[in-house]
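Exercise 7. Given the components listed, write out the predicted structure of the assembled complex. Treat all entries as one system.
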Amino acid sequence: MQLTNRSKLVVKKEMTFAEKIYLPAILSGVVITIKHLFRKKATVKYPEKKREISEIWRGQHVLKRDDKGAERCTACGLCAVACPAEAITMVAAERKKGEENLYREEKYAATYEINMLRCIFCGLCEEACPKEAIFLTDRIVSTDYERNGFIYGKDKLVEDVNERIDVTVRQTPAVLAFKEQKKLSHNK
Amino acid sequence: MAKVTIDGIEVEVADGTTILNAARQIGGEVVPPAMCYYSSLKDTGGKCRVCLVKVTQGSAKDPRPMPKLVASCRTPVMDGMVVQNITSPEVLEARKGVVEFLLINHPLDCPICDQAGECDLQNLAYEHGAGKTRYEEERRTFEKVDIGDKIKLHMTRCILCYRCTFVADQLTNERVHGVLNRGDASEISTYIEKAVENDFSGNMIDVCPVGALTDKTFRFKSRVWFTKPLDAHRNCTKCSGKVVLWSKGDDVLRVSARKDEFGEVKEYICNECRYDHKNMSDWTIEGPRHIDKNSVISQNHYEKIDMQKLKLDIERQIQFQKGKQLPETNQSPA
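Answer.
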């Protein structure tokens, strides 16, 4: 039964002398290889040269701090429940007196972990976040030899107070308009 | 017996039944929401106004419509009464306004609040409210108060439904807390912050429709949708011992009373069951708790389906859909 026109009938016939010595076949292969040497390369030498990425590239996550340097995340768990890959886990804790400059709300994430092997970089966590705390950035998650190295804790996720990570391109007009509302307590 | 028609569905109920309870006998979408009415507490209701419905025909004898929307939890039915709930745009509009009023002073700190995910106000606002707030003034705030060592009071979140004071009145021996001050400044309080120490005082956590009264032993432990609700019971001398365990792995994070489909507790539990038995070994596990599929808690929650119950539910919904197609009986005078 013939299903398509592309199918080829395999015939086992005696090879000719030229075919038997294999040399023409090898030579034609070498010619193809040499041709490819002068073609434009499909790959780039990654760490030295980086490919151009989209403005809204979804790479490694960052947990933002607010203007005063306090962590924005309040461990509400919406990112974890939105995450289709179940990559996010967190443990909440209550803020003590004197920690107001560390954490913005009365509850904060004592531990916050993203399993980068599970993460599919869909960006649903930043969409779910009600506190403007988690964003995906243009950074690429680095490689590792061990699985444990891919479980990113707060040490890798929270941005440094002195080295802020710019996420303005990822803030949609709706988000920016929301931040303009100074009446809301957490925008003060 | 009185015959009433609610959203085109006829039901026969005992005399003196309220419209809300008549609607609950029908069940499904026609049940008006209720934030303050609590069937197992006497004299509750009439405060939050979210259960407003339209009465298009007062009774068979006097078919005039009632002049204003009425609170269904406080209005008894009359024979031949015709009521509109979700079929009346006026009711839906009014309910939207009431939700907006309830949310005026609410801090909207759901990401922090332990009640989030099982909060009546959250569900109500989601189903009936507007997506945005128009309120620009300063919201009223109160200091957080510890009522005893087990209950935390966030007065800022309170909607003044008075359910907890009725618990104090009707379930416990002596009432030690109530509402102080008036109007905007009203505040649930204990006299001179006296601890509430009654065997059944913990029930005020369960009756609270918002996160104003929360369990301190569960405070910030986990979001409810990451816990596994299990039906369980134990032999208790003070109460029925029938509870829901909110567990994570082998840890019991919280124990609460069982709520019915209207979010009401029928069998109150004692403080010993609630606070002092946080081991799986203390309880006889019956199985996973039934969680409404619309609830966020039903995420990753698996339970056995009662096919008989499911069939009845589908049949009821089909009946309801049919009922919706018969609006001639209760068309409002436009």
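Discussion: Chain A is about 20% helix and 15% strand. The mean pLDDT of chain A is 88.
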